[in-house]
UniProtKB/TrEMBL annotation:
It comes from Sphingobium herbicidovorans (strain ATCC 700291 / DSM 11019 / CCUG 56400 / KCTC 2939 / LMG 18315 / NBRC 16415 / MH) (Sphingomonas herbicidovorans). NCBIfam families: apt, PRK02304.1-3, PRK02304.1-5. Homodimer. Pfam families: Pribosyltran. This is Adenine phosphoribosyltransferase. Residues 38-143 form the Phosphoribosyltransferase domain. SUPFAM superfamilies: PRTase-like. One of its GO terms (cellular component) is cytoplasm.
Amino acid sequence: MSTVDLAALVRTIPDFPKPGIQFRDITTLLADPAGFADLIARLARIARPLDADLIVGIEARGFILGAALANALGLGFVPVRKAGKLPGKTVGVDYVLEYGTDRLEVHEGQLARGARAILVDDLIATGGTALAAAQLVREQAATVLMALFAIDLPDLGGRTALEAKGIATSAILAFSGE
């Protein structure tokens, strides 16, 4: 399958969640068995040489891609959740959004000191959530080897923001615009 074929499986929903936004909906790609398998295989080809210890998936669609990638690589999976979603004792980081703040958390002790992690999410836009997840991983004395995404929206500068913080970044697809 080509990247053009994969991109064709991503549904664009205009004016969601607000006017002017072209929402890139990956659920249509996930529902296509060949497309989903190809996406995970492509992510695995990028991730495998990094010799990671675990995959860290960012809520929510990063759970889907991250868990599938962890399985493909024979690695463990750690979910990064929004505040109040994990049942055990957590550690977290607050971060700034366009209109306020939010918090990401992991279970305390789930990221071992010195662990080598790959961050995974479905899409990189401005990079705020991915930067917060990377900070959370680093604050647990683990290393972020790379941030992997199915989709990059390069016009929004997220990849540039991550790379400015020393985080190697890769995406399988790119779409222009917001």
